[in-house]
Design brief:
Elements: E1 2-4, H1 6-11, E2 17-19, H2 28-36, E3 41-44, H3 51-64, E4 69-74, H4 78-81, H5 90-102, E5 107-111, H6 116-124, E6 128-133, H7 136-145, E7 149-153, H8 168-178, E8 183-186, H9 192-201, E9 205-208, H10 222-229, H11 236-243, H12 266-283, E10 290-292
Parallel strand pairs: 1-10, 2-9, 3-4, 4-5, 5-6, 6-7, 7-8, 8-9
The structure holds flavin mononucleotide.
Length: 294
């Protein structure tokens, strides 16, 4: 089946699936496999401390894949930036944006805090700028600043929690009414039903974070992956993870962990999502050879 959405059309990817940003493991080896599996692999710039190592990583990525990929800039909010000596704020990343553009990168994601100057730089060079946020207000604000798409992270997602955050269902269905630009659903998605549900709710693609942490290519230790696949979904701490910002315990994972049962290659993870989604569509009576949300 051919998958067609506003995001597959904008980016040239085969399936409407986008890799999350990952502090620590969001590097070329992992991202290239995501791109080669038909999605949009993302290198997280936060993981590189000098222009030189960032440039080398881009070179490695270009050697590893010829499929589309993107770069994420996770922006430290001003309060956090004040507390560190070398804050990774918008200014910090401006050289990285130039290096990526010089290396032919066309797709960029920003997250964690507003990044209008990065967005402007990307647009001036003809690139695409996707912004990731957790609330509808921030999504509207990023659209007004000119973002080309929004990733909205629901309460189920890993990472930054905002007290005003909604669930993925509320986020995406409402965003569909409020925004004009394409929407990428994030938070708690880890199987074909979640993937199809997100598209039905109005998303043009989904973003995978936790769900790909136990893939063979993810750079976390094998012991983490083993804990992840053993996550007991009836453990009371697992429920708390949704609501309690302070729960940093790495032995408890976010809701998408409940879907992961084995350590498999990224290509199988994405392949399974797509083939299971196609089976579900067939079981609903869908007979077409193309699935389009355009
Ligand atoms: C280990 C880990 C590290 C992450 N690091 C970042 C980061 O540096 N910047 C960012 O914007 N999001 C980060 N995220 C969030 C993901 O990019 C994505 O938005 C989120 O995982 C989606 O929710 P899910 O985990 O339910 O799929 C991280 C997620 C995980 C699991």
């Amino acid at each position: 089946m051919k998958w067609k959405t506003k995001i597959t059309q904008l980016t040239g990817i085969k399936y409407p699936v986008i890799m999350g940003a990952f502090a620590g493991v969001g590097r070329a080896n992992f991202a290239a496999k995501f791109s080669d599996s038909g999605g949009l692999g993302i290198i997280t710039a936060l993981n590189f401390n000098t222009n030189g190592v960032f440039r080398e990583e881009l070179q490695l990525m270009k050697n590893l894949t010829n499929r589309p990929f993107g770069i994420n800039f996770s922006i430290m909010p001003p309060e956090t930036a004040k507390r560190v000596s070398n804050p990774k704020n918008e200014k910090y990343y401006l050289d990285f944006v130039d290096i990526a553009l010089d290396n032919g990168v066309k797709i960029f994601t920003t997250s964690a805090y507003q990044a209008p100057n990065i967005g402007k730089k990307i647009h001036k060079a003809g690139g695409l700028w996707f912004h990731k946020c957790t609330t509808l207000k921030h999504a509207q604000s990023a659209e007004n600043m000119g973002a080309d798409a929004i990733t909205l992270v629901g309460l189920e997602g890993t990472g930054f929690k905002n007290p005003l955050q909604n669930t993925t269902l509320v986020n995406i269905t409402m965003a569909k009414r409020l925004l004009k630009i394409p929407i990428i659903a994030a938070g708690g998605i880890g199987d074909a039903r979640g993937f199809l549900a997100a598209l039905a709710m109005g998303a043009d693609a989904v973003c995978f974070g936790t769900a790909i942490m136990a893939t063979e290519e993810c750079g976390v230790p094998q012991s983490y992956k083993k804990k992840l696949i053993k996550q007991d979904i009836f453990d009371p701490e697992y429920y708390k993870k949704i609501f309690h910002f302070q729960l940093k315990d790495k032995t408890i994972w976010s809701p998408a962990a409940g879907h992961i049962k084995e350590i498999i290659p990224l290509k199988s993870f994405i392949g399974n999502i797509i083939s299971d989604a196609e089976k579900i569509l067939r079981s609903w009576g869908y007979r077409g050879e193309e699935f389009s949300t355009l």
